[in-house]
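> example.struct
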């Protein structure tokens, strides 16, 4: 029977680029959604950028733009990356929307009416310079256990100890550098510890199949520790939605982020005429399915269902949690070039379906991490997709075109097909069950085993030999028709993973878009096909070398750049939240400092006119291996500068950034145009290139002195 499904992926935070770790989730979800649509179900796949919080506010301030400008720019970047990897959202929205605001206020008011909101005074660190309360990850100091300096306010990256921010020795604000003071403020709490909430959550998490067994076990641990009430408010200044009836108080980003699922869906409903309440309210047979990373299970398996239950909304049917991504067996690293962004992969022209297939071949229904081994990636894609699957069509299509005018065998041969390749058609049910259960690796292993059988059939009958002798044209026609029918069936099985290649195969076979039900039929006798065109190229190992080189940058110490990372918004945790921070890896040793140059006089220094400049535009220079073309605003004019930073920075991420430039450097004529200055950066042998920045408040045209 047709199913009604509302499917979501976790919302990416609007404070950074989409990278390979993110793509594990979105590709996994997209495959499941495409499979459900192929089965004929009514599926709506929605997502949105997660746009609120202190981190967004501070980054926008640092760049000298409004938070709205920042999140709009990042939204475009994220959407481009998702489109590039064929993640087919039915709607990709933003949490900074009228729909999410209205739903957040409604849910809050419903919870308050049921007596589940409490107001308490909380003492926190306060930055007296920036006049703002500081989230844990915006406070640093000396570890109270080992004495290591410059440690965050929730955990030590040297000894791994966890603590409260108030335990730090000699604390200081990451925002201004000032010593913070303690200050009390009223905060709003969702009473997760209320008996009704606790009983509901115990029942929802431990009965039925809403969660994987691993997730249920983790939830039981949290129950044994006791559920804490959840601080859902933040004080101004804060970028978010103001709490109704509480001036200067804002919803904590983790309250409105999951509500963004419903906000995005409501936006879709308004455009398509879909009934929002049919999906969002209790009753009926709608399924609401969330795909998330295991690091945000606490929010999605406790806070989120409790909010929905007591605000009168549908609770999740399934919450599917997945593991993290490692690359070559290690955490992703910028210094090793394995912290790979989606944009860099696409910019180099690599086929997104290579990665979709490789991820799918590794994915299962558990919370285990998966590894991207780059050598295995090349070998598996070339062997499976090109050597096995695509090869099947190319081995038969030419003979059909040249010898038989592009027409398949003219007699019905269903029974003969099933006797020749008995498993190819009958495997549809088993492969469908694997996709449904998110056992993508099992599904693809079965498909490739079938591809092996088809290739063995070709080797057995040797159509090239039949064509060479010309003695048995009917047998040649029959063999090639069997092969192309088998190729069509394999295409159905691979279509959730390879939608573009499947589309090319459909055009080659001259058939309507394939559905899963088509696995029950074969092509009609005498069907006309089109001339064969190559469906997919092999991966060249040099392309992978170029990808690693493009991502080998050290914008941060290795310890900060490692993945999996906590989402920036979860770094705003209040001390009342029951989340356990993960220990971070030890920092890599810093590169050796260069010997200082001979001294100069102040007069010599003042000859160099250093100015603050804002990057207006940044783009790759066609034909140049190292150059990025920058247009810089220095207050009174704009300058064009060519900078040799192509291997270290993505131009899309430079726009709006403040840099320091030498404004009185003589112009230099280059093959690509005139360079009218120089931007300053730090570097050491093998350590990367680091553009110099300026604190918030600096403006284009200010002199550095």
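> example.seq
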């Amino acid at each position: 029977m047709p199913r009604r499904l509302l499917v979501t992926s976790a919302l990416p935070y609007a404070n950074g680029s989409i990278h390979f770790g993110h793509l594990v989730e979105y590709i996994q979800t997209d495959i499941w959604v495409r499979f459900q649509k192929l089965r004929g179900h009514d599926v709506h796949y929605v997502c949105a950028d997660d746009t609120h919080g202190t981190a967004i506010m501070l980054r926008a301030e640092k760049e000298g733009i409004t938070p709205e400008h920042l999140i709009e720019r990042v939204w475009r970047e994220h959407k481009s990356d998702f489109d590039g990897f064929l993640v087919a959202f039915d709607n990709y929205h933003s949490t900074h929307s009228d729909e999410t605001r209205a739903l957040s206020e409604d849910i809050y008011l419903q919870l308050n009416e049921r007596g589940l909101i409490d107001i308490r005074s909380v003492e926190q660190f306060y930055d007296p310079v920036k006049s703002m309360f500081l989230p844990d990850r915006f406070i640093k100091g000396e570890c109270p256990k080992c004495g290591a300096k410059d440690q965050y306010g929730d955990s030590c990256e040297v000894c791994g100890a966890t603590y409260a921010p108030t335990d730090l020795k000699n604390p200081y604000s990451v925002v201004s550098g000032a010593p913070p003071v303690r200050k009390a403020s009223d905060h709003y709490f969702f009473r997760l510890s209320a008996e009704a909430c606790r009983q509901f959550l115990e029942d929802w998490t431990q009965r039925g199949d809403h969660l994987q067994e691993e997730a249920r076990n983790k939830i039981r641990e949290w129950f044994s520790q006791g559920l804490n009430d959840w601080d859902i408010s933040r004080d101004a200044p804060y970028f978010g939605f103001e709490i109704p009836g509480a001036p200067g108080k804002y919803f904590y980003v983790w309250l409105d982020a999951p509500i963004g699922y419903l906000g995005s869906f409501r936006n879709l409903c308004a455009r398509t005429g879909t009934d929002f309440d049919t999906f969002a309210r209790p009753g009926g047979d709608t399924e609401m399915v969330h795909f998330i990373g295991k690091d945000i299970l606490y929010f999605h398996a406790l806070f989120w269902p409790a909010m929905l239950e007591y605000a009168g909304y549908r609770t999740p049917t399934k919450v599917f949690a997945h593991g993290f991504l490692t690359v070559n067996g290690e955490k992703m690293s910028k210094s090793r070039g394995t912290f790979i962004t989606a944009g860099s992969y696409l910019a180099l022209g690599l086929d997104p379906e290579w990665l979709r297939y490789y991820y799918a071949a590794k994915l299962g229904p558990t919370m285990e991490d998966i590894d991207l081994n780059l050598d295995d990636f090349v070998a598996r894609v070339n062997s499976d997709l090109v050597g096995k699957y695509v090869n099947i069509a190319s081995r038969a299509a030419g003979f059909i075109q040249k010898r038989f005018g592009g027409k398949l065998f003219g007699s019905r041969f269903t029974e003969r097909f099933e006797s020749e390749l008995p498993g190819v058609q009958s495997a549809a049910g088993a492969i469908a069950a694997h996709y449904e259960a998110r056992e993508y690796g099992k599904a693809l292993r079965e498909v490739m085993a079938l591809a092996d059988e088809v290739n063995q059939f070709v080797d057995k009958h040797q159509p090239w030999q039949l064509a060479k002798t010309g003695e048995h044209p009917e047998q040649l026609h029959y063999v090639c028709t069997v092969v192309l029918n088998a190729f069509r069936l394999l295409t159905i099985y691979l279509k959730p993973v390879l939608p573009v290649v499947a589309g090319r195969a459909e055009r080659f076979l001259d058939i309507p878009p394939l559905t899963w039900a088509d696995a029950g039929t074969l092509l009609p006798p005498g069907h006309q096909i089109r001339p064969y065109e190559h469906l997919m190229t092999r991966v060249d190992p040099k392309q992978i070398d170029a990808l690693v080189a493009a991502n080998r940058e050290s914008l941060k110490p290795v310890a900060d750049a490692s993945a999996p990372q906590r989402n920036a918004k979860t770094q705003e945790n209040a001390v009342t939240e029951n989340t356990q921070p993960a220990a971070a890896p030890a920092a890599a040793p810093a590169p050796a400092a260069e010997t200082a140059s001979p001294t100069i006089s102040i007069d010599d220094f003042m000859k160099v006119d250093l100015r603050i400049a804002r990057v207006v535009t940044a783009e790759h220079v066609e034909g140049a291996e190292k150059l990025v073309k920058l247009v810089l605003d220095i207050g009174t004019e704009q300058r064009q500068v060519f900078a040799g930073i192509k291997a270290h920075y993505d131009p899309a991420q430079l726009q709006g950034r403040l840099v320091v430039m030498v404004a009185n450097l003589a112009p230099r004529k280059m093959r690509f145009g005139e360079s009218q200055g120089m931007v300053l950066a730090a570097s050491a042998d093998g350590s990367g290139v680091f553009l110099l920045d300026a604190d918030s408040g600096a403006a284009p045209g200010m002199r550095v002195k």
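> remarks
The longest strand covers residues 117-127.
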